[in-house]
Amino acid sequence: MGDMHVHQRLTRLRLMAPSIGQCAAGAALAWLVAKELLGHASPFFAPIAVVVCIGVGLGQRLRRVVELVAGVSLGVGVGDLLVSWIGSGAWQIALVVALAMAVAVLLDSGSLIVLQAGSSAVLVATLLPPSGLGGLNRMLDALVGGLMGLLAVALLPASPSALATRHATGMFGALADALRQIAEAIERSDSALAARALEAARGTQTSVEEFKQALETSREIATISPLHRHRRPRLEGYEKAAVPLDHALRNARVLARRAIVALDGSSALPPWLPVALRELADATLLLKEELATGRRPERAGLAILSVASRQGAQRWGFSADVMIAQLRSIIVDLLQATGTEREEAVAALPPLDVPPEAAPTPDEKDLAGANVTLPS
Length: 376
Description:
Blueprint: H1 2-37, H2 45-54, H3 61-86, H4 90-107, H5 111-125, H6 134-155, H7 160-188, H8 191-202, H9 205-224, H10 232-264, H11 272-292, H12 298-309, H13 318-337, H14 342-347, H15 364-367
Helix pairs in contact: 1-2, 1-6, 2-3, 2-6, 3-4, 3-5, 3-6, 4-5, 7-8, 7-9, 7-10, 7-11, 8-10, 9-10, 10-13, 11-12, 11-13, 12-13
């Protein structure tokens, strides 16, 4: 378990390395610009603004710059105005911070603008009492830092398609692993193995959120950076696949839960089900490869359709009917991930007459947001 945690941390460090490099280079550049070109004695807001703008998180950097400059301006403005009237002290700090943050909340709901307004007001009320153009200089430093942060993103960018691909790999791998583990659990009649598959699948939501953030950042880099603007079309495949993949993982969790129930109850399950699950896992990895190379996922689509077309119509009982319904939902999700419209994906499934009472009753935390496709 310890080795796994170390590996996960090293993987995250590798993924975040470009952002760390951008922060370091941008902070140094912002300090030099504010100090040497603008002549500010201690322009600490400039490198701070770079770190806040770029961060080691992903996405919304353009919005961060606007919120950062607005928050600093508001905090400095309110702080300079009030402190020049009421002086510095404990109650003055409380009043200045409360007013600056309250005004920020009224102007915008963004958390960064509110926090930056409060922290800037604290600095003005304690370390940096009003003095001439000090407030204006701090606002300029924040603007310089924000612009240098964007410049660092533009000139020292990570490849947007590579960034999206690295984060997508975890989602595709998790889905394929879950499908294969469920297939093995069915073949072995091992409910404990199905439980482990469920536990592993439940731990994938972080990967899903990180992929969505990475996709947002990739779009942002392709917009900001002239070096990577031509890669924007390669991101379209991931943009189409993001939500359906999330749904497929959620449906896989429900499938694992039902497999536990079926195996604990020694329910009869169709012999073709493990084969279909493994082939669907292979199709998932094929989809990953085609999206990574920028090709239209035609081969993956054909592989998914192949799994859909070979389902039997024989009834196997309640648990089996529920599992087949979940398998059909995952097939629809994956077809949508290839760019197929939902109506067309549903139409690709062979008709299956399953009574309404066979509808699954999944745990909300497993299915929240999933795109369940039950047969009519």
